[in-house]
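hey can u run this one w/ iron/sulfur cluster bound, need the structure tokens asap thx
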Amino acid sequence: MFRSQLDTSIKTNLTISSSDSKKVNVTESKKIDVASHFILRAAYCRTEDLRRWFLAQECRLFRHRLESVSNKSHGGNNDALREFLAHNDFDLDRVTRNEKDSLRDKLMSIPGGPNPVEFHTTEYYRVPFIQALELVSRRECYIEGGYAYVPLGRIVSIVAAKFRASLSKSLALAAGVFGQVAHDEQARIGPLLKGMNSQYTGPGAPNAVVGLDGEEVLSAATVDALAEQSMPLCMQQLHTGLKRDHKLKHQGRLQYGLFLKGAGMSLEEHTLFFQREFTRIMTSEQFNKQYAYGIRHTHGKEGKRASYTPYNCMKIILGNPPQSGVEHHGCPYKHYDDANLSALLGKLKIGNVSDRDAIMALKKDGNFQLACAKHFEVTHPAAKSVDGVNLDGVGNHPNAWFSASVSYHNKSGKVASTSNDMAIDVVKSEGVV
Ligand code: SF4
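ok here u go:
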């Protein structure tokens, strides 16, 4: 799913067609690709968290493209990959034919390596083993004298590691001059660069979610059932926390309130829903005095009357972590420790054991958004083949996750019961974190 999503995203956002629309305009496509990379590099160099996030995304994109080139070459003589390496001055030491023949048995013993026929045409490269740690850990290369011997087809991980190191260094350098550039360019690009990470305009940007009848689906009456059926883990946890404590702390009210608003819950329904929960532990007067204003503010009816947008995943992931047991905002994939997240996935019966292992592996690698997208994939089988379900923003925006899930269930005829029974079951079984 991720690879095909990436391909679609590249096609949509980084590919310009020629005037007759039949061919890709390579020159123009390259221009927007390069420009967008450097704009983002400038916008995401400011803090350690932003740099780490940007580095992870760029490396993933780079690796995906490199693997596509490598796969195209697979079975042939890797012309495209070799051409790429030569063009980009990757200094890999090619193993001579004589040396290759003398190491034949050892090289042939690498698991998954070429068969005897392919061995003849396979090129091998020698790199310091420190640069091939990923291959070493997977036993996918032969090591001798401090060098790793790697077939051309497996060069990808070495090149990707070099790319990461080089981009990481460039980001650190850019961070050093960002303050000056932003200051000099205050009137032009400074504010744009500073605000870029908190904006989300991609696919799945918040839109009211409507049902088959064209009506908004989210109301005080339906929210319990839809929380269980269609909300991503962050919002499910906020919902569960609200049902359990009958209140939410400030950050939680903001994160959940803006999500609900973005998903189409009206001010009246939002107020009704929060009032229903909060007044279990306080009077209506207290609720009106302390919380109703904040809800109206969220909907742009008080204060600056600004149109606040729901938080995207990145803003949530990079935001303040919740205080355990007291606050429920944040992203569980980022902010829960491994044991808590694993227990939560098990309790919610997300997929089977191997699905949960796959989600946890992504979380442990720091791929929080991919872990979330995997959660979607596991709980919405074959979603990409259901017509009209837009998966593009899943893993990038909680509202996109919700929207895709609701349309998946609508299209596949499995719509949530709007009875409160289902939600009450969830509340009874909650208790993790
Ligand atoms: S990745 Fe995004 S949608 Fe998923 S749980 Fe985290 S914040 Fe929510």
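The two ends are 30 Å apart (CA to CA). anyway lmk if its weird
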